[in-house]
Amino acid sequence: MNILVIGAGGVGASMASIAETRSFFTQFVLADISLSRAEEAIALLDDRSKFVAEQVDARDMGAIKALIQKVKADVVVNACDPRMNEPIFNAAFEAHCNYIDMAMNLSEPHASNPYEEVGSPLGADQLAADQAWRDRGLLALVGMGVEPGLSDVFARYAADNLFDTIDEIGVRDGSNLSIDGLDFAPTFSIWTTIEECLNPPIVWEKNRGLYTTDCFSEPEVFHFPAGIGPYECVNVEHEEVLLIPREIDCNRVTFKYSLGAEFIDWLKTFAYLGLDSTEHVRVGDVSVSPRDVLAAVLPNPAKLGHLMHGKTCAGTWVRGTYDGKPREVYLYHVADNETTMRDWGSQAVLWQTAICPVVALELLANGSWKSTGVRGAEAFNADPFLNLLGDYGAHHGMVEMGPGLWPSPKPTGQPGWDRPVKRAIRLN
Fold first, then answer.
1. Which residue in 152, 211, 231, 323 has the fewest CB atoms around it within 10 Å?
2. Is the preceding peptide bond at 148 cis, omega within 30 degrees of 0?
3. For the whole model, what pTM was predicted?
4. Which architecture characterizes domain 2-144+350-391 according to CATH?
């Protein structure tokens, strides 16, 4: 298998370091708009014999297609932020190449009533292309990071092995990470974090379909394992809510982050000042996006690993019945920053995201996962993925929940924070 990864940032570089320990591929090409950044990531590897750095602009579909053909890629992995999905996704299709990303195309909230009506959901254009990819005999594996990705694998495993009926599947993400010397610093792309946290959250219900709620709605206290502890989680926009119901019979799907009140206050402040906007404004002789400026001035998450402490947990909570009795479980994966920095040279959040597409690539290479069309991880047998994940040294866990067992999530009884749409200014 010849692999082309576009994006040599924190996730792309981590993918290279993880892939270095495996033998399933012939060539791994790491491409970036900055050739030096790709070269620097490869230079950190011990065995660079299968790795090549290339330059490409992820916004240029023609250049991407030409690079796919040049390196004879069997699969192209989009390790950029989701703004680059469209040109990479379309270039892969035109070049007759399989495709993987870790986040789907951005949504468009309803123009006039975003908290009551659904606009264009996440990945709508990608999912609409399903039949075209099938007809061409190609696979677009979308949302194959940790969340979405591993969370969907957990949902599939639960549906196939742990439940007879499922009432709710809820992805729950929490951490106790801290960063020395910084009062505020994101552990993942602030651009993407703003996008998913300040857009109207989405919920899916079988009898209602997809709907939106207020930002940071339905707060609950969720007890995370591995010593992380109880944290308040709230609704945010995320792909699992759209992907999981395509393949798994259940009544409700949600996604909640443990953002914390302080982080939510920062997000609300960004929105109030217009710093979340992607619309360009003139500053002197240049045109800039306020969100791009914010991302540029905040610390790069990929460079903070040596200052970080703690663990991050990604997991899927499932509630339903088994053998005629109520059942509730949480399947999870924990990344300890000390461990990921020591063993992989990558901070925990980026490493946890990066390992999942590498595992998926190996499953595609060895034939354990086969399909065509636009599919998420929930469409595939979970067992090969979880077994191989363990072979990589990244073991998952599960807790049984309920009375006398691990604590179930507990709604706080509060409506959540006010929706963060108040603005001091209006951008034209």
1. 323
2. yes
3. 0.95
4. 3-Layer(aba) Sandwich (3.40)
284 DSSP assignment: T
Beta bridge partners of 287: 282
Q: Which residues on neighbouring strands pair with residue 163, listed in sequence order?
A: none
Q: For the chain, which residues make up each domain, given as ranges? A: 2-144+350-391, 150-343+393-411
Residue ranges of alpha helices (H) inside 199-289 are 240-247, 261-273
Token digits for 299? Answer: 């610390």
The rounded average pLDDT for each run of 10 residues, N- to C-terminus, in the chain (428 residues) is 97 96 97 98 96 98 98 98 95 98 95 92 97 98 98 98 98 95 86 92 96 92 97 96 98 96 89 91 92 92 93 98 97 97 94 97 98 98 98 96 95 69 55
Sheet holding 139-141, edge to edge: 51-55, 27-32, 2-6, 75-78, 98-101, 139-141, 373-375
Residue 87, by phi and psi: left (phi above 0), alpha (psi -120 to 50) or beta? alpha
Q: Does domain 150-343+393-411 have CATH number 3.30.360.10?
A: yes
Length of the chain as a residue count: 428
Confirm whether 2-144+350-391 and 150-343+393-411 share one CATH topology. no
Nearest-angstrom CA–CA distance, 82 and 142: 11
